[in-house]
Amino acid sequence: MVKAVRTSCQMVFHFTSSPCDAAPEGYLLYMGKDKYENDDLIKFAWPEDVWYHVDKESSAHVYIRLPRGSHLAGKDWYKNIDPKVVEECCQLVKANSIKGNKLDNITVVFTPASNLKKTQGMDTGQVGFHDQNMVFKEKVQTRKNEIVNRLEKTKKWVEVDLEADLMKRQKEDKAEAARLAEKTRIEREEQEKKWKEEKESRSYDRLYDESNMTKAGELEVDSDGEVDFM
Q1: Quick one: where's region Disordered (predicted)?
Q2: What integer pLDDT is reported at residue 225 of this predicted model?
Q3: CB 23 within 8 A of CB 59
Q4: Are strands 156-160 and 10-16 parallel, antiparallel or unpaired?
Q5: How far apart are CA 128 and CA 160, in angstroms?
């Protein structure tokens, strides 16, 4: 029997959320086609990605990719997603859960992808959390076919190299950090030069004033040695 060899590329489903103020063209929503892709998504998620899953039931792992740098906007950045888009993520997770899709009043959990944890001994596709305080829940009363059907119309099955994409992203981040560091260095040096010039200018002005100043109460004597009382 020939054992299947996994390639560096993965087949991932892409969806597009409804437009909102923060994303006029909609957000990218994505999920793996099976538990193996789910493991890869955990490993190669981006810092701005937020993960959704039906609580205590088997379901797809659905991610939303927020704009780059969103994770730097305070500790609650992942809780500020448009409620309409959150509902779409929850409906997509529910629709892709064999048991959860049939139940009403289910709970969907969500957390930053960076909070997902894989430990030795976990089954493929199984996940834990680094910080339980960063895990939040949304109640989903029932399936809303109008939402699921709209998302299904945007569905694309995309072959991607998740590891290569993440490495490219990290390289870009490193280059941007270096550019900002260099910009900060140049600005600091220019400011220090300006302060030094201002300090030297004040010292020169003070020296000039002192050399031309007659001290208070000092008597001026003319060339004949006589005191001028005028």
Answers
A1: 180-230
A2: 52
A3: no
A4: antiparallel
A5: 25
What's this model's pTM, rounded to 2 decimal places? Answer: 0.77
Burial track 57-68 (b if 16+ CB lie within 10 A, e otherwise)? bebbbbbbbbee
Q: Does 86 map to a domain?
A: yes
**Is residue 50 pLDDT above 60, yes or no?**
yes
Closest CA relative to residue 152, chosen from 88, 73, 105: 88
Is residue 133 within 8 Å of residue 68, measured between CB atoms? no
Q: Which residues pair with 20 in a beta bridge?
A: 23
Q: Which two tokens stand for residue 136?
A: 């939040």
> Checking phi first, is residue 170 left (phi over 0); if not, alpha (psi -120 to 50) or beta?
alpha
Q: Is 227 part of a structural domain of the chain? A: no
Contacts of 149-153 with CB under 8 Å at 24 or more apart are 150/18, 151/15, 151/16, 151/17, 151/29, 151/88, 151/91, 151/92, 152/15
DSSP designation for 79: G
Q: Give the tens place of pLDDT for each residue, 171-222.
A: 998 998 899 899 999 999 999 988 988 887 877 666 666 565 555 555 455 5
In a domain, 186, yes or no: no
Number of domains in the chain: 1
In a domain, 175, yes or no: no
Domain span at residue 112 reads 9-169
